[in-house]
Amino acid sequence: MSHFFADTAALTGRSLKHITRSLDTIITTALMPIAFLLLFVYVFGGAIQTGSHTSYVNYLLPGILLITVATGISYTAFRLFLDLKGGTFERFQSMPITRSSVLWAHVLTSLVANVVSIAVVVLVGVLIGFRTAAGIGGWLAVAGILLLFTLALTWVAVIPGLTAKSADGTSAFSYPLIFLPFISSAFVPTASMPGPVRWFAEYQPVTSIVDSIRALFAGSSVGGDLWIALGWMVGILVVAYAFAQLAYRRRIA
Predict the structure, then answer these.
(1) Choosing a second label site near 126 at 20 to 30 A (CA), which of 54, 68, 76, 219?
(2) Who's near 16: CB < 8 A, 6+ residues apart?
(3) Chain-centre distance of CA 83, in angstroms?
(4) What pTM was computed for the model?
């Protein structure tokens, strides 16, 4: 285990150096969610009825944070693809390092990059009127949910990063993930949707995650949504991790 942690730390440092040399990646990651945030608050927000007394930016921000993560993980898949095509993985395999540390380094880099992007989006939200009643405990709970969500989706991103045939293919998988919050309670209450769409919106994972974050920001009781959200995220994480490890063994063997 000591070798694993040391190898992972060294490889994570390598990946983070690549990030710091191309800060435009993080800026690009945050740019689209910020554009959605501004568009819906200032263009569509006045016409959307949320059925609550909170401002629309407070209602909207949790969903925008999930879109930020979904956007950011596409770069994880792209960086993996570049390492594979450039022969970096083969060079690592010739060195006395633990195999799993190579993937974990990319995953941890994704976590760091997405935390920065999320912080930028939250800052923009505060500047345009986002306010929260959450205390330290609420903020820590939101941070935990977002980190678990990022970890789960990052392992999903590892799979196309290892299996895609082209650079475009590595990022194409993220488009459905970015679109999924639009069919949830992220932008409008599910009660306003027609029957089949409403059923899908209420039972897909994004709704329970968004509702949990929204309740924590409001300082209100989360209820059963939190356990449903945790169940979805842990389930996705376990399945994605298993398939990612299988794809890694097949690709490197």
Answers:
(1) 76
(2) 109, 112
(3) 22
(4) 0.89
